[in-house]
Amino acid sequence: MAAGTGGTLAGPLYAPAMSDPFPDPFPVSPRPLPPLGKAHARRLREIYRSAGWPCQDPLEIELLAAGLLDRVREPSGHEALRVTDAGVQLLATALARNRAAFSAHEALVERVAQEMGRAGRIAWRGLSLRAQVPAADAGEPPRWCIARPDVFSIRNTSVANYVEPIVHEVKVRRADLLGDLRQSAKRNAYLDLGECWYVLGCDARGRCIAAPDEVPAECGVLVFEQGRLAVARAAPRRSRSSLPFGVWMALAKATPFTGLDDDAQAPLAPG
Question: Please, what is the average pLDDT of the chain?
Answer without folding.
Answer: 83
